[in-house]
Fold this protein.
Amino acid sequence: MTRGWLVAVVAAIGVACTASAQRIEDGSRSTIGYLDADGRIESSSRSTVGYFVASGSGWRIEDSSRSTIGYVVNSGGDTFRVENSSRSTVGYVQ
């Protein structure tokens, strides 16, 4: 899973807790995956590529083998910090 996936997942945070799967879109609004209500991250072909897990004050992002590949942390308000597995900041989403 790439950094692009991390950012795409963060973009779906606002809808992560709804009852049905939510589409994850790229900048041109093409569907590149799905975020299911149970926390599974799926590719556009609906195969599981990772997991989005509530953790402390944010979320942990795991790959398909359940290894942690990143974190999403609320930096205050509507700003979320994206961190890699070493907890270094790799981006922000507002």
